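Researcher: Re-running this chain for the archive, since the previous output was lost when a drive failed. Same request as before.
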Amino acid sequence: MRISFAEGLAKAIYESLAADPRVLLIGSNFMGLNTEAKQLMNPVVSEFANRVMVAPISELGLAGAGIGAAVAGRRPVVDINTGSFIFQAFAQVVNEAANVHYMSGGQTTAPVTFYCLAGVRGGGGSQHSHTTQAMLGQVPGLQILTPGGADDAYHLMKWALLESRNPTVFMSHSLLFGETAEVSPDEPMLPVGQARIRREGRDVSVIASSVTVTRAMAAAQELQQQHGISVEVVDLRTIAPLDESTVLQSVAKTGRAVIADECHRRFGVAAEIAAILAEQGLSLLKAPVRRVAVPDVPIPYSPALEAELIVDKEKIVAAVLCVMGRS
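Model: Regenerated structure tokens:
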């Protein structure tokens, strides 16, 4: 069946609640301000009202409640809402959830999922547009899921709620809600921590995650049609764990790498992948690695200024042409 990214999320949560009585939803504004997407959660609220905790906006309190419920044997998904607000909950997410298993000597787990709408979404301004994958990726004990398509939105959310034994940050993106894909609920999921080759290619590897996957796919199509360049698109799917081997295998085939990342340029996911390629794949490269990331400035509210910063199709195309020596 073909469903949207938002439908995949809602379907995964609904099916997880139906499959396991330990699953519960904690929050107040799931799916953010997208009215159409929020309506998809109505069946969840109506059928599982006894396991939906509508709470005041207090990210620190919600996170703490979710961790406590997880330690006590439940499997909660905590709606952090806008990804920038996870900073309010860092004491719980980073200092408590991530350390429960280690500090208990492996005796206790906290399978809680923190759901965030992260990234530059259009007019969010500096306080609502953070992309926190790289920050959270530095925290041992946390899993960071960054689906770039409806298929992974469904499968990764369902895996987090029903199978994961560790705390998870699920990073959604409101600009992906309308993206559609074929999803088969009965089809085995690609393992967590394994990247997906979204498009085969031979000339250059474009490594992407979350919203940059669709933009990389659009760039790959344009490059093939207008320049005859064959682009391989690698969808990371998860930041922690990070699939280094698939990235290296792809670059071994193409000899060139462009990394499309909505984090800021310094110390971002793209910087980490570039470091991996420098340490483990330098001999594979025919050209220097190119990063397409957000400049190191706050995200402006102005749409015109924001458009200058975002990682879009045009910037990815320009980076590929550069590594191909055609700029």
